[in-house]
Amino acid sequence: RDHDPPITPAGAAAAAAVARALAARGWLPDLVLASDAARSRQTLAAMAEAVPALGAAPAFFRGALYTAAALDGQTAPALAAALEEAAGGGGGEESEADAAAAASSSPSSPPLAPSPSTVLALGHNKGWEEAASALAGCAVRLEAATAALLEATGGGGEDGGGGGAGADALLPTWQAALAGGEGDWTLVGLVSGADA
Length: 196
Description:
By secondary structure, the protein is α/β, with parallel strands linked by helices. It has helices at 9-24, 38-50, 63-68, 75-86, 96-104, 127-136, 167-178; strands at 31-35, 59-62, 119-122, 146-154, 184-192. Helix 1 (9-24) crosses helix 2 and helix 4 (75-86) runs antiparallel to helix 7 (167-178).
């Protein structure tokens, strides 16, 4: 099954390079939303080994994010639901696998920040590329070990939805944007493990 293969040594090295590049740009997450595939967990572990601060963010591993990536147009709504769930707003139904994963998600991580300003969404193509393209409003090509740096730029409060917005302003902007609503996103750049 595609769900089970581990990350390759080259993949782990590329993930570490992406982590270092994200840290150099100041893009350290205070929340991680990830597929529950073995290689997603291993990718995050490789990133956290390279940049220990990445391991401090609460991580939520969800089977729904793995499944949605294979379905046309479903990844962004699945990310919106996972974000809502992670932020304590419910988030709808959870599979038995997701409920078990929730019980074991980052048990040593600190509690979720009340207004996470940076979220690392870790998963698989084709859905992640599709979601990044929809959010950015342009074609975004995501090769293996590539991060799309997207910034909410509208409808999010006094600073336009950036890092300083409160939870009530920031989270609805993310949810609206991820659900194809009113949120406004800018593609700041791409970081690739091959380039970093």
